[in-house]
Amino acid sequence: MPLLTFNDRGIYCERADVYIDPWKPVPRALITHGHADHSRWGNEYYLSTRLAAPVIKYRLGDIKLETVEYGEVKTINGVKFSFHPAGHIIGSAQIRVEYKGEIWVASGDYKLEDDGLCQPYEPVKCQHFITESTFGLPVYRWTPQEELFADINDWWRATAAEGRTAIITGYALGKAQRLLNGLDTSIGKIYTHGAIENTNEVLRNQGIVLPETTRVTREVNKKEYPGNIVVATPGAIGQPWVKKFGNASVAAASGWMTLRGARRRRGADRGFILSDHCDWPSLLEAIKLTEADNIYVTHGYTSIFSKYLRELGYNATELETEYEGELAEIETKGNEETNKENAVADGE
Amino acid sequence: MKNFAELFRRLDRTTKINSKVESLADYFLQVDDEDKLWTVALLSHRRPRRTVNSKLLRAWASELSGIDTWILEESYHVVGDLAETIALVLPPPEADYDHTLTYWIDYIERFAGYDEEGKKEAVQEAWRGLGTTERYLFNKLITGNFRVGVSQKLMTRALARATGIEETNLAHRLMGNWTPNDTTFGDLIHSESATDDISRPYPFYLAYQLEQPAEDLGTPAEWQAEHKWDGIRGQLIVRDDQAFIWSRGEELVNDKYPEYAILAQALPNGTVIDGEILPFKDGRPLGFNVLQTRIGRKNVSKKLLKDAPVVLMCYDLLEYEGRDIRKLPMSGRRQLLERVVEEYDTEGILQLSPVFAFEHWEDLAIERETAREKFSEGIMLKRLDSEYKQGRKKGDWWKWKVDPLTIDAVMMYAQRGHGRRANLYTDFTFGVWDGEQLVPFTKAYSGLTDKEFNQITAWVRRNTVEKFGPVRSVKPKQVFEIGFEGIRRSTRHKSGVALRFPRMLRWRQDKPVEEANTKDDLEALLKTYGS
Asked: Does B205-401 carry CATH code 1.10.3720.10?
């Protein structure tokens, strides 16, 4: 019996009777990070890193949550669990599981590039490595972030020079803060969509330093927006919410913006290729660094990526999970859902 | 090519016409005349010929990037565009080549004289020194399918802005049979009159589909009504004892339709007629499928000429006695057209498109109902005092097409789209009931809104039965109303029928799958409308 198995609730460790990132309610859940597809509602007990905990609590409400530091070992029925930086978002972790010399790592979502905001990815040696494959195709190759942020700031500067408002979209937790961190505040002020500002408040309360931002509310005079930038959730675009910014240039920041089809479908004026997931070269690099022979491929281009790994000589298996990766940043939500989100954001 | 790549990025970023015109006008002011000429050529579908086939291109890309062709293929399915896929999988450039667009087109045109190894070296060498967008454009140029979302009209407007030459004059000068290899930018855009190139056609005037009730157009007395014949729109030019026939796609098609050759002698020089290339026999039009046997064939056999002879069904006269008469009113042009067609013996090759007088819009509606039986697509309405304009314009000319034939069908297979729709399931195969079984009979790609495509994509992901490469079979649950313009028997299709212009009219989420149409219903349509 392998130390970790996969069933219809999630990744399961029978010996310790715990799940990692389960998608159905279970008695005990170990959580890699706070994104909704990895930390779901309804578990009786949660364990996460100390840095990930505030956002998880903010999102899931009154839950029973215990925390550990990175590297700290927690033993459950003889199985050693420890959390290691995944470099995906603040507090995100790969979970290492060890019992009698058998070592597994469930990496959740991760990236190798140091974004200057969260704890950089650390490779963890193991025999069994569970990896995502959101961008597991050779067409995905990121530009270094300095170059990318220079492009984003150039676009903001040009938009400001035309007397227009710049709007850039990204997921409320993770991408949004990464954007904030890379914006050149000498150009203008940063405004934020309410859903993003709520997350910012949680992060600031736990001591994370973010640039100064102003929440978009009805109280802000509309004349103040032109020349400045608004960081918004992807769902806010195409909704009445954006009308208040008048003649704006809209940009989307996502790994999907690599593809011309996705850029055009998104209907954004600009697409910047910015992701908190691995591109193709770094997925392969990460797998190599673990020195694992057995690779389990979850969400993304699972069948293609695992076939490729098998050709490289790995023992690779594809897994059906309910993780979504960066999909939320591109798929159109129902209007009702986004309207609700915007209403909350406006403090209605 | 850096200027050209930046132009492409700017054009690709926006759907706003004014921004596109501005980007193009900026570009025309930046580059030299040679690049201007090539840009005009590329944007008016004058592409260099394909010099490398895509199979070789895949092999070379796979070699340079060190990945197997199967994963390149899989990537292509996701990206939806081979030129883009290759541009993305290649390793980052090692050098930074900065040459003009014309340099690269010359570079590509030299491939014709190379053997396979020589082409490979040249292509891989170019890839090593080009950025992602430049590589993409280079790939598009060598595979001969460069396209960009800019109409010729829009390009003409930008060129007018950059050169100060009037748009309509430019539009005329840019038409016809030129290539960048046999003219210069200066000669092309400064040529003074239409006679500089005797084969040069006038831009076609195109009509929009009538969306409002016909009654809203005012009094019938102000309108000319005739059939919208179901052939290929064409323009016949007789000048300098030669006859030229242009299709609406701005293609010179003399070779394909030798019937028109006699008109060089039969008609006076300085005659230009707008009409329909129409299969026609024993005094009446034949169906479009008869014409299809001739489209795409350059060598026309005697048998084909006998079985599928064409005439020019004449709609309008644009040049009379060597004068451009497009500014005359429709009624005046029609009188002259009738004179030309009746006065000269063209052995029946010129036919006048009959106009029908009508007192009430209802009379016209009745004529429209029976149009399909006459192999007509519906009614054309032209204001009697209208000029012959250029391009698609609203107001004076309308097409009032017959309603499509429809059938309710069940979705059986789904495939990802291409380009803009690469991540969505947009290409579907539909079936009708044959007893308990579904038999596939058509594919359809268009007709749904983006929102509906998003919804159906999510549904397909959850209801896949089997995957065959990029194609998925899905549970037979969804009913769509399929609209089409014609139906005929076909030996090439398993179902034995082929539809013309099939598209999804409506997603019938209200309809239980058992109530979709049957194979018998399809047979009944074939009996009534098949030709």
From this structure: no
Q: Are A30 and A23 in contact (CB under 8 A)?
A: no
Please give the angle made by the CA atoms of B62, B67 and B70, to the nearest 5 degrees.
80
Interface residues on B facing A, Cβ-Cβ cutoff 8 A:
12-14, 65, 67-68, 71-72, 74-75, 78-81, 84-85, 88-89, 92, 418-424, 450-451, 454, 458
CATH, domain range B2-142: 1.10.3260.10
Q: Enter the CATH code of domain B405-529.
A: 2.40.50.140
* Dist CA B10 CA B12 (whole Å): 5
Distances (CA, A) of B400 to A248, B63, B361, B383: 39, 54, 12, 14
Both tokens assigned to A48 = 């996460």
CB-nearest to A259 from B92, B422, B450 is B422
As a 3-state breakdown, chain B gives helix, strand, coil percent values, each rounded to 5, of 40, 25, 35
Q: How far apart are CA B41 and CA B103, in angstroms?
A: 15
Per-residue model confidence as pLDDT tens digits over B401-426: 888 889 999 999 999 877 666 678 99
- Across the interface, whether the CB atoms of B418 and A261 are under 8 A apart is answered yes
CA B503, CA B480: separation in Å to the nearest integer?
Answer: 10
Contact B427, B504 (CB under 8 A): no
Q: Determine the pLDDT at residue B298.
A: 65
If one counts every other C-beta atom within 10 angstroms of the C-beta of residue A46, the result is: 20
Query: Which residues have C-beta within 8 Å of that of residue B39, sequence separation ≥ 6?
Result: B4, B7, B27, B28, B31, B101
User: Smallest Cβ distance to B71: which of A270, A308, A332?
Assistant: A308
Residue A170, domain extent? 145-274
Chain Cα centroid distance, residue B498: 20
Complex ipTM? 0.89
- Cα Rg of chain A, angstroms: 20
Chosen domain end from A274, A294, A321:
A274
Residue B284 vs residues A250, B201, B351, B408: alpha-carbon distances, Å: 56, 28, 10, 33
For position A336, what pLDDT does the model report? 35
- Quick one: what percent of chain B has pLDDT higher than 90? 58
What CATH number does the domain containing A31 carry?
3.60.15.10
* Nearest chain A Cα distance for residue B165, angstroms: 29
Residue in the block written with tokens 């300098």: B240
